[in-house]
Amino acid sequence: MAEQFPGRLLDLLEAAADRPVFEHGDRAVTGRQLLGAVRRVTRGLRDRGVRPGDGVALLLGVGPEAFAAVVAAHTVGARVVGVRPGLTEQQRGHLLADTAFTVTDGPGTDAGPGQVLALDDLLSAPDDGLRPTVAARGRDIARLIHTSGSTGVPKACAQTYAAMTAAWALRPDAWPPAVRELAARLDRFLVFGTLASQVMMDYGLLTLAAGGTLVTAERPGFPDSIVRHRATASVITVARLTQLVRSQRKEPADLGSLRALMVSGSPLEPGRLREAAEVLGPVVFHGYGQTETGMISMATPGDVPGSLGVPPVGLEVRDDSGRPVPPGTDGEVFVRTAAQAEGYWREPALSAEVFVDGWVRTRDLGRLDAEGRLWLTGRARDVIIVNANVYYAGPVERLLATHPSVAEAYVVAAPDDDTGEAVHAFVVPTAGHVPDLTELRALVTAELEEAGAPTRLTVIEEVPVTPAGKPDKRQLAARAGSC
């Protein structure tokens, strides 16, 4: 049986030897040094009783030691849960409920219900100099990748070690053409935020497999971080790309090092893509994927604006009855990828809705053209995408409707230059009351996340309806877009 993840990564770090693979502040960390950190943390975890299948939560930054801790947790075969910043207390408690251990590089006093392990203590374990033994078993859950939590608590996509091993990032022989073109530009990949981000971690692995260096930015900002760190590549949201283009038009910075910006999380309009290419050059790669599937398709700078390139995965566009439709016909996109999750952790009913006979129902609408390129045309789900995070309308609407000034509430996506999309609330007031946006935002923020709270409010006498008598949210979205 082939060795499971992270076996290839350990081999890659060993082969890197004295080549810098990580830059953090004024430190350059070589492959040999990073592998040594992985060995020490692996030993520390095993000495403290962490075994294959144990739940291990990671509350970490993005430095080399944090990266080593992620790799070590997978080396011992743990079920890894990355905890991102900005969660409510309820959401964080939900994430940590099934974990026996929490690794933190902060105070960690309220980290979780299990044993709290300080990363510095784990790094102090002795180093035997031997390649760590990978204990992961293919059928075991390797990581729980959480969605935004906009339904109240985050859904956890359960990815097995077999799926992580089959993923494309560490397998140059399996790179599709678009990924191969991107990999050649990842000399210095800017890492920021949190390694709990699936996108950040997967592109980081791709960078190492391509022979590049991960460069951390403690206070990320575009274009400053690109200039300061001489970055050749980074991940960027549509909103940040718009801001960068605007900034470059007004006061150009020297972005001579930049070769790739990977846009992910939300659709990129062809007009914005053309403007970005005009100002920044041919550097924009537009990825399409989901937490449940990983990458589905990617458009390179040379692809037709608006398309998402030719998907290198199994993909079907289906009609309402579930039958595949011919090229040029719109339908719902179904995919299957080597690295897809096997379902939602401990949510069999929800899993059955989305994971169907080996396929993942994306709930996105699109079509394939005659050349096999993918075009997205809409959503089959009622969501707003804020800063690349998905927020479902239903939970927000239900919360708003509990306010004494609100009789009915409907939320839609409104274009926003800062966040890509923003939550626009249309409310029918109760008699004698005047809804207040500040109060409604506070209500949603307390239960969900601040980004899912409405930033705009329109009071209406009644909601428009479709011929079938249902609320016509398309009309509301059109009003929100024109505001």
Automatic annotation (TrEMBL):
Question: Domain AMP-dependent synthetase/ligase spans what residues?
Answer: 16-345
Gene Ontology terms for molecular function: ligase activity
A Pfam family matched in the record: AMP-binding_C
AMP-binding enzyme C-terminal domain location, by residue?
A: 396-470
Recorded hits in PROSITE patterns, A to Z, give: AMP_BINDING (PS00455)
List the transmembrane segments: none
- Keywords assigned by UniProt, alphabetized: Ligase
Q: What is this protein called?
A: Long-chain fatty acid--CoA ligase
